[in-house]
Predict the structure.
Amino acid sequence: MLLIRFRKAAAGLILILFILMFLGGETLSTFLAGILPPFQFMPALMRTISQPATLFLAGFIFIVLITLIFGRVYCSFICPLGILQDFFSTLARKAGRKPDHSFSRPHNILRYTILAITLTALSIGLMSLVILLDPYSIAGRFFSYFLQPLVVWTYNLGILAGKPFDIYLYPKQTAVIPLPDTLIAAVFLLLIVYLSVRRGRIYCNTVCPVGSLLGLLSRVSVFKLTLNQEQCSECLSCQSVCKANCIDPQTATIDMTRCVGCFNCLAACSRSTIRYRPARHRAAPMAWSPARRGFIIGSIAVAGSLILAFNGRLRHLAGIARAHTNPPVTPPGSLNLSRFTRACTSCSLCVAACPTSVLTPSFGDYGPAGLMQPKMNFENSYCEYECNTCGKVCPTGAITKISLEEKKITQIGEAKLLEDICVVYVDHNNCGACGEVCPTHAIRFVDKENILYPEIDTQYCIGCGACQLACPTTPRSIVVHPHPVHAKADQYVMPPVPSAPDRTNDTGFPF
């Protein structure tokens, strides 16, 4: 069937593009980041709230419109996590493990409660549930935590294999992922794989807040799947292929709040009992039930949370401005700590695209509300002076896109010299490692009895961390301290080179 072929082709293409966006390197990631994230629900919503952009607003409207017209087709061939679940299910079927697609009653109270709590937390600036449950961010962490290191490891292994044949290439590196973050991502990966293999799209229809929200919209979609009970032979072919477990053959109904628009049932039905067409009749009134109560609670929570999320004054009154006692250094373009932690969904695209791998996921550095949000890790790398990739790829606006010239004077932190550890001050031996790598000339040296003592001129320091990485002492004797609110550094101007003395006599001839 044409619809199914189109869905499968579109889903496969989008999955490949998403993998390339996370694994393709700086140039390809930047290009694809301008095309794919605007049409992902949570990035489009967060960008519309934090840093309105035309394409992201258009993407958000597009997702809402196609859901109101066609139902939850977004979950079928646009959402990367939804596509991954179908991929795992397909692998299971080929391996002889057929998922159980029999009808199951909806867990409306559970899914709408999760939706209500997630949206309420989001509206007051608490990102924990969004970070953990957002399908785009979950998929992004799968790609950057597991797939990218596997690809880089394979590439570096190929470099070693090429040396005997005089083939030399530069090895690549990836960010150092903290063990707790790896464990959290691994648990979610195993959970998604298990649920996909056993029950298809049960995560989408029970836990995922995006699926629950789009399910509310799909209740009033123009096109719906309908089942004619009089023509049905009760062969159960449609039920056996329904990945959303939403076809009830006993009542001849299809739960459109859970249907993800895969259209497998259309192809499976030999008698054309199931049809996809505009709804002609209004749904009969629902009797009062716990499921109906959950639906109403979810609807009210969505409306109230969105109003709160778009109102900055209400968010402030709700107490989203939180103090951080020992915050990490945030990327250039994040502007300030509070804004960054309220907008980042921890998708790790910036982590995957960073050419020096200085951006790494955190664990607990931003508090429980900022789980796995990226930070600058100067113990393992530094922020490249000629790079502003993170702002180009960030889908939510947590890291704003700034020009390279502006980035070069953005003061994300300030280097501090610990003289009681520095080898020059302690052992009175020349070192100079920090000054050699400083791109802004913020580190100068004072000559005292032929020993060059480093000093830091903070007006030029941007906190790039190159000096901290280069410092040979353990612990480091030069450390970057964060600026919770980013500032502007002065741009160093090279002093003029003195001209050579005039060595001519009165006749104009040199001596």
The radius of gyration is 28 Å.
